[in-house]
Amino acid sequence: GLMNNIEGTAKPLPFVEDTAVAPEKLPEYVRRFQQIIKNSGTEAGYYGHASVGCMHIRLLIDIKTREGMDRLYKISDEVSDLLKEFGGSMTGEHGDGIVRGFWTEKMFGPELVDNFREVKKAFDPNTIMNPGKVFDTPHLLDNLRFGDEYHTHEIETRLDFTKEGGFSAAIEMCNGVGACRKLNLGAMCPSYIATREETHTTRGRANVLRAAISGKFPIEDLTSKATFDVLDLCLECKSCKAECPSNVDMAKIKYEFLHQYYKTHKVPRRSKMVADIHKTNARMAPIAPIANAVTRSAPMRWALDKLVGFSSDRPAPPVVRNTFQKWFDSRKAPAGTHPRGQIVLFHDTFMNFNYPSIGVAATDLLEALGFEVIILKDRKCCGRPMVSKGLLDMAAENARHNVDLLYNYAQRGVKIAGCESSCVMAIKDEYPDLLGGEEKARVVSDATVMLEEVIAECLGDDGPQLEFTDLSKKVQFLGHCHQRALTGLSSSLKALNLPPNYEVTDIPAGCCGMAGSFGYESEHVEVSLAAGEERFFPHVRNNPDHEVCVTGVSCREQTVFGTGRKARHLVEVLADALKK
Fold first, then answer.
1. Which DSSP string corresponds to 419-468?
2. How far apart are alpha carbons 580 and 576 in whole angstroms?
3. What is the pLDDT of residue 370?
């Protein structure tokens, strides 16, 4: 499955990848097999169980063409002849099915196959149990997912799908292995974990979308309400991008789907409110006490639930009057030189308007490392809320504005550090796709990091180092899904373990279930809680003596909703032990 993300239409196909010969014959068999591959004008990936003579060899073939289909048949025919010569088997461990079953009579002879039929008839006289397998199968080329008659309808996308080979190719990367159905391991797929329904797996969504783009049902249905419902429970966690063997990026596919969907459907008021969260918070901040009293009052929560669809049981984070930007502008910066030079702190919406303590802690840590901290007052929202709702034109405007601001720093080698995982990963992952893969966006993407990555990179070098007190505490850490999928959590754990008396546990859980606004939406609350209940909530409840540490505001809010416990950002927890 890992090989399926090879670029291009030729993919490593499993049609002669379960052959077996006696181990002592394996060297010569492989040499002869290699000659067949060479003669066919392609190449292959070799793996398997050499000690028992079983080889899983997958050849690169484009079966969307007649030439590719003919090549597949010819190779399969030649390999079956080779196996007969070597006294081997088409099936080492996987079963005959259709693909290998097509050669059953060649391999066993008509007399034995008649015996097979007699046994089958004795137990299944009406041929209702898995018919057409092992023997009497369809023709080898009659049951292909793709073939020379397979064609897709390519749409003009808003996001750049060049590296995937187009929107259709991005969908077709799903090879059906079903890793999205795993339980109690990793973070994929939260909606399946919550519902246990195939429809709500990455594979289920890909199958529906593939059917639409390939004409299994009218292309107009690609943006139908029924298709919308199939993708609705995708939390856009990006876990499939990291944990699916083929790296299917269903979050990106959903962003594009929603963009296409809203070309013919009205954008919901709720989606517009989510997209405008930065502007709304900016308006509310000067009158924060009044605004909070109104928005968190029972009548307003009832109205938001009934009229817009935000659950009345889940109040939004309160805004503050003294924003992080106000604090930063009014503080007295430390005197002296900055041996590490400048660093841009991207102060996201929630850091600025809801939890300025995160920004204060981040500033303290960066300055203790010897950086001159820069914030850009005229930066815009990263665009993540807009992207999540498919409002990609709006998101691209913000991306354009921010890239133009940040590029001047990035091209000089200045890092752009952030604390909110979803915002940082929007700059890293979405900006290049929103801006057509342009070089400036890629330079900014490469320069953007989580703040703890800066800490880890500076550790033990010749520059100033963080010094910590003897503060003792137990910490349990949940990494944000986007961060886990795109950059990993090793730097977060390394940073948290720097204070000598911190005892840190990496919570063995997947997605918390909040996923931005998803967990606030009335019809999604049940699924949101079920995803968190799978592993995250029990771990927090069972370790009441551990402080809960996160890197995303979604995880912070979900911890309260699901366990009643307060969670804090990694930089806040780390700064607790910082020697001032």
1. S-HHHHHIIIIIHHHHTTT-HHHHHHHHHEEEHHHHHHHHTTSSS----B
2. 10
3. 96
Q: Are strands 44-49 and 547-550 parallel, antiparallel or unpaired?
A: unpaired
Q: Are the CB atoms for 406 and 416 separated by under 8 Å?
A: yes
8 Å CB contact between 396 and 437: no
Phi, psi of 343 (to 5 degrees): -145, 135
Q: Is the pLDDT of residue 540 over 90?
A: yes
| Residue whose entry in the numeric block shows the structure tokens 């049951």 | 143
**Which DSSP helix (H) or strand (E) runs through 532?**
helix 525-534
Distance (Å, rounded) from C-alpha 516 to C-alpha 425?
A: 13
Q: Is 504 exposed, middle or buried (0-12, 13-18, 19+ CB in 10 A)?
A: buried
What span, in angstroms and rounded, lies between the C-alpha atoms of 36 and 42? Answer: 9
| Per-residue confidence (pLDDT) for residue 428, from 0 to 100 | 97
Instruction: Count the neighbouring beta carbons within 10 Å of the beta carbon of residue 413.
Output: 9
Q: Do 291 and 354 form a contact (C-beta atoms < 8 A)?
A: no
Phi, psi of 245 (to 5 degrees): -55, -30
Q: Strand, helix or coil at 187?
A: coil
Whole-angstrom Cα distance, residue 176 to residue 180?
A: 9
Question: Distance (Å, rounded) from C-alpha 315 to C-alpha 291?
Answer: 13
- State both tokens at 98: 């259709």
Q: What is the pTM of this model?
A: 0.88
Query: Which is nearest to 362 in space by CA: 115, 50, 575?
Result: 575
Structure tokens at 360: 């204060």
Could you tell me how far CA 478 lies from the centroid of its own chain?
16
What is the per-residue pLDDT across 98-127, written as a single tens digit (0 to 9) for each? Answer: 899 999 999 999 999 999 999 999 999 999
- Per the rule left: phi > 0, alpha: psi between -120 and 50, beta: everything else, 370 is left
SS3 169: helix
Specify the amino acid at residue 155.
I
C-alpha to C-alpha distance for 440 and 409, rounded to whole angstroms: 11
Instruction: Quote the tokens at residue 97.
Output: 């099915």
Type of residue at 57: I
Average pLDDT for residues 443-454, to the nearest whole number? 98
C-beta atoms surrounding 542 within 10 Å: 9
Residues near 533 by Cβ (< 8 Å), separated by ≥ 6? Answer: 513, 562
